[in-house]
């Protein structure tokens, strides 16, 4: 087992530099885990198949735009000091000096849960040769419920490793909001679940180095459910806001929902072009996929279906309004994040490109080549490129789109007749006085 004697606990082994943390996957979750642990004095080594991310870590660069803002500190010096290292050779992470492995890899593909990468990583970890120090594997990725029992443990046992003795396994999904420094790895309550009580205690020791609050679930099966359910709650509420706007098209549903939200126990959600990202649009599907009998979860299936259809309805509304040249602001699903996973833009572009003369996309976090590869359309410059279009769709509330004075924006919209705004970032501009119809998602007749 991992040494946890009176002389030196796991926490002490990590903080004293006797043991390290290994991180599998260097995206938002993996990189931020490394940075926080390194800042706390724990040496970390990460691995990723992306050579660019690995090079960034080793050179002291940040591979993800704006992540420094969310972290609340500059992680560059942590690489040059040797506290953060990375490699494309995953076998280096099987070093016995690495006592804790954080699995931070994607568990989705397209718009479905997908476990191939997890299977690959666990299969590699299963090549560890046991000795008296059993490594602790903590899965930080979102899991379909029952994945640990149906996939992770069998893969380890197939290689002769006994879970709870040769290797310890636990689940601690991340719940960060990467646009808010107040909601960080340090400050957000962290739910954990171990396959054994000892595993849970060691998880609490390790994660407690950087997390202020660690909340043990009954076991790993209960911990697997937490993130999926909490995001499924939000998915249902967000989709209900969109359904209400569709059911009452002549009502300013934004204002109605704002007032509804003044009741102490109700969250405020605004109608939109649909959800996006790794969490909300997939959450209901994780819960549906993990249920022994998903039929009682009909509300979740209806939520998934409605959310998938909404971007196409937005595109149809634009087509019906007579648009011929459409410019879209934002490939990312959310402002100031470089994340286009399940962004409404993808489905909107897919519908528009076959029904209007021109569709182009601007996003300050993506190059022209990236936009063309991801969307199959050209990019344009902001704000001067706005003059090309008769219709503008605002998907993401990037700060760049509000850091230009109003007169400049209006002067670049000389050929524009309609603006459809998902976020409300331009709602204070007098478009009507310049002959432009401005529609904010959720307002009367916005679709």
Task: Describe the structure in your own words.
Strand 12 (358-362), helix 14 and strand 13 form a beta-alpha-beta unit. The protein is α/β, with parallel strands linked by helices. The protein has 3 domains: 10-218, Rossmann fold (3-Layer(aba) Sandwich); 227-299, Orthogonal Bundle (N-(1-d-carboxylethyl)-l-norvaline Dehydrogenase, domain 2), CATH 1.10.1040.10; 308-440, NAD(P)-binding Rossmann-like Domain (Rossmann fold). The chain has helices at 10-15, 28-39, 51-59, 67-71, 76-80, 116-125, 147-158, 197-207, 220-247, 253-260, 280-290, 298-320, 344-352, 368-375, 406-411, and strands spanning 20-24, 44-47, 84-87, 98-103, 108-109, 112-113, 136-139, 168-171, 190-194, 214-216, 325-329, 358-362, 378-379, 391-394, 418-421, 437-440. It has 15 helices and 16 strands. The protein starts with 9 loop residues before the first helix and ends in a 7-residue tail after the last strand. An 8-stranded mixed beta sheet has the order 3-2-1-4-7-8-9-10, sandwiched between helices.
Strand order of the largest sheet: 3-2-1-4-7-8-9-10
**Domains (count):** 3
Q: What global shape is seen?
A: globular
CATH topology of the largest domain: Rossmann fold
Mean pLDDT value: 94
How much helix, percentage-wise, in residues?
Answer: 25-40%
Classified in CATH, the superfamily of the largest domain is NAD(P)-binding Rossmann-like Domain
Low-confidence stretches: none
Major sheet: 8 strands, mixed
Based on CA atoms alone, the radius of gyration comes out at 24 Å
Per CATH, the architecture of the largest domain is: 3-Layer(aba) Sandwich
Quick one: how many beta strands?
A: 16
Distance between the termini: 60 Å
Q: Note the beta-strand portion.
A: 5-15%
CATH class of the largest domain: Alpha Beta
Structural category is alpha/beta
């Amino acid at each position: 087992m991992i040494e946890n004697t009176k002389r030196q606990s796991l926490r002490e082994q990590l903080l004293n530099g006797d043991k390290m943390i290994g991180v599998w996957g260097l995206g938002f979750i993996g990189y931020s885990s490394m940075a926080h642990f390194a800042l706390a004095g724990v040496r970390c080594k990460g691995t990723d198949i992306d050579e660019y991310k690995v090079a960034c870590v080793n050179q002291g660069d940040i591979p993800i735009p704006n992540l420094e803002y969310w972290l609340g500190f500059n992680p560059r010096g942590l690489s040059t000091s040797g506290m953060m290292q990375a490699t494309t050779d995953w076998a280096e992470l099987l070093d016995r000096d690495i006592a804790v492995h954080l699995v931070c890899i994607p568990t989705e593909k397209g718009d479905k849960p997908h476990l191939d990468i997890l299977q690959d990583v666990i299969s590699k970890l299963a090549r560890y040769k046991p000795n008296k120090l059993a490594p602790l594997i903590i899965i930080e990725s979102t899991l379909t419920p029952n994945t640990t029992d149906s996939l992770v443990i069998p893969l380890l046992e197939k290689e002769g490793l006994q879970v709870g003795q040769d290797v310890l396994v636990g689940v601690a999904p991340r719940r960060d909001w990467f646009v808010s420094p107040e909601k960080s790895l340090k400050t957000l309550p962290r739910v954990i679940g171990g396959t054994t009580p000892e595993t849970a205690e060691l998880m609490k020791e390790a994660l407690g180095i950087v997390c202020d609050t660690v909340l043990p679930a009954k076991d790993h099966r209960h911990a697997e459910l937490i993130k999926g359910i909490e995001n499924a709650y939000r998915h249902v509420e967000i989709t209900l806001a969109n359904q209400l706007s569709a059911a009452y098209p002549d009502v300013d549903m934004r204002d109605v929902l704002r007032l509804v939200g003044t009741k102490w126990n109700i969250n405020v959600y605004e109608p939109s072009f649909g959800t996006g990202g790794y969490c909300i649009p997939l959450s209901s599907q994780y819960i549906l996929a993990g249920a022994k009998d998903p039929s009682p979860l009909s509300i979740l299936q209806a939520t998934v279906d409605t959310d998938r259809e909404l971007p196409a309805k937005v595109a149809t509304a634009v087509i019906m309004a007579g648009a011929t040249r459409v410019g879209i602001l934002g490939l990312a699903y959310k402002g100031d994040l470089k994340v286009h996973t399940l962004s409404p833009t993808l489905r909107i572009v897919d519908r528009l490109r076959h029904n209007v003369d021109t569709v182009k996309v601007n996003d300050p976090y993506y190059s022209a080549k990236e936009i063309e590869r991801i969307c199959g359309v050209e990019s344009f410059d902001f704000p001067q490129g706005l003059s090309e279009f008769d219709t503008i769709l605002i998907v993401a509330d990037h700060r760049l789109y509000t850091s230009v004075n109003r007169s400049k924006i209006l002067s670049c919209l000389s050929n524009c007749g309609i603006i459809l705004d998902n976020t409300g970032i331009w709602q204070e501009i007098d478009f009507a006085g310049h002959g432009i119809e401005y529609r904010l998602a959720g307002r009367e007749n916005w679709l």
